[in-house]
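idk why but the lab printer keeps eating my pages so im just putting this in chat instead. protein + calcium ion:
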Amino acid sequence: MTHLDGTTPPSSAVTDGEPTAPTAPRRLLPLLRTQGGPHGNRSWATCLYRCGNACDHPEPNTSGNEHVQDVIRAAIARRTVLGGAAAGAGAMVLGGFATTSAAAAGGYDAGASPAGAVPGKQVSTDPFTPVAPNRRDALTVPAGYRLNVVAAWGDPVVPGAPAFDVYRQTPEAAAQQFGYNNDYVGVISLSTTKALLVCNHEYTNEEVMFPAGEYTAEEIRRIALMSHGMSVLAVERPTATAGHWVRSASSNVRYNRRITGETPFVVDGPAAGHDRLKTSADPTGKRVLGTLNNCAGGTTPWGTVLSGEENFNQYFGTAGAIPATHAASYRRYGISASSERGWYQTWDRFDLAKEPNEPNRFGWIVEVDPLAPDEPPVKHTMLGRFKHEGANIAIAPNKKVVAYMGDDERGDYLYRFISTDTYRSGTDAASRRHNKQLLSKGALYVARLTGDGLEDGVWDGTGQWILLCTDTVSNVPGMSVADVLIDTRLAADKMGPTRMDRPEDVEPNPVNGRVYAALTNNSNRGSSYPADEANPVTRSMVRSAPGAELTAASGNRNGYVLEMQPVGGHTGGTFVWRLLLVCGDPAAPETYFAGYPKDKVSPISCPDNVAFDSRGNLWVSTDGNVIGSNDGIFRVPVDGPHRGKVESFLTTPIGAEACGPLITHGDRTVWVAVQHPGEGGTFAEPIGLWPHTHRYPRPGVAVVWKA
Ligand code: FEO
Ligand code: CA
Ligand code: CA
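predcted complex ->
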């Protein structure tokens, strides 16, 4: 492949780069902090730029929901004993779960399934040797697998984009090039050898991106705004069975597109045009410039991509006074006058005193049609406003569209949307036009999970979807439909949902019909509020460095994967649930891998994104490993004799988290977005240089396949 400087890197640079001593001039940026953040291995820069130091602020959720059991720690000890006794037989302790078929799971529409399995070298069935925990500055895959970088920060996206020059970057150039910190990965197939790659660009890390002294603060902000958003990029492979994908120069580049922090969006749904969405620049309340902090997402059965606006609060601030009318709402979303990004100094719309409604225009699920490059993307108010990780769709037997969503904040909630209208199969223009309206009308719910007690030795119970509103009727006392949708967190607080340990990606498994949620961690669990059966861990074993002893830390540091079985299908009112994984080092007593023998699983910490291959295996990417390794991607069977067998498929370079993942093309291709490689250093003092094409690291998207 060719990189942004026009050269073709040696294959070792992208397949297996070992740490390379940086040779760039060493100048410290004025903002340089000591490496190592306040939250485990997470660098201070990740904390600051990605989520605005959310863990250093009080939790925005001060509601008193669901303080059920204060005896969980003792119960964990008991469950550990039971779990140990049941190791290998844990799959039998299934409570109310159906164990196999999609029919038992409520009949997931096969139309939403990924491409069917084909014989050959599939990652779904291949018995690879798991990648050992490591701290390499490399994307490391199992023996026998190969990889290449498809696109990285600065690569041209829009035809005619200027060549990237890190010393002469401009907002105009950034708006045409692959943005920073790729997160969600979607792939829309156009033929057996051609596709569109759709990526989110979640946030910028100015310390790593910009050489010190080359740009003013104003220039940095303007370039950073354009480096956010999304990319649509034509890609291709040489043959219909190859795993090697590259950027395409075919006529499909007509679809190539950058969506930035200034791209016009249409607002739809019940809150569109509401007074609370109007600003001086947009008196209609229906046209917003840009999308920010786009984290995970989902590709819909009708071929569009959904993307979650997550930690949007950090972009707003003011030197003035926050209007009293907005204070309660701001507080619940963590919006405050202080903003280290300082964007309000460049743009009035990010100044809370000048444009107090502008934050109400972020925090939504957005929908982009990669096949309609001239069509403005849409912000869907019907799916509520919170720190959206993403949204993933299931089609119910009655053809209603169901979206599952997580609000990624300590102690916040799981959500579900059900459409009013029904899905039309078919790829004709009329069907697509119809389906693109499905997220505009429907009903929004929040989840309450109730444990059935620890006597059974399993973290499990039942769940209920609590209606917040439909597009015409509010179910929340004292709040209109628009208020429920704009202040979804405040609305949910009134309805008694369960406070969860940072719900990230939530996705239905198209093979078994169950829904899987990554609950990444919660340092406050057990201190700010008690544990419950769905969020049981208040004391975790962590490791400060590779090979170091495990030590105890307060709270849930390693996260869970929650498995939910809808009762009556995806549109039913209830579900049964259990924790599939309690993550961490298998040597830690609190860990649990669906009962699979602990000596046969890979350590896993901080699950973030989930995906499925065509056989229904769960794939989990992680963010923020606190057990002495880089992050990675793991394969986990969820049915059959190997249910719970966690195996590390790859590890990301130093400083990076693993995003995506996505398994495509008959389980032959694994897509991974390598986000924030080298984070924790600076441009002058990088701690990593992946993908080893330049003297600075570059976030990028890679594919992995069996050689
Ligand atoms: Fe952007 Fe919740 O991770
Ligand atoms: Ca139980
Ligand atoms: Ca994420």
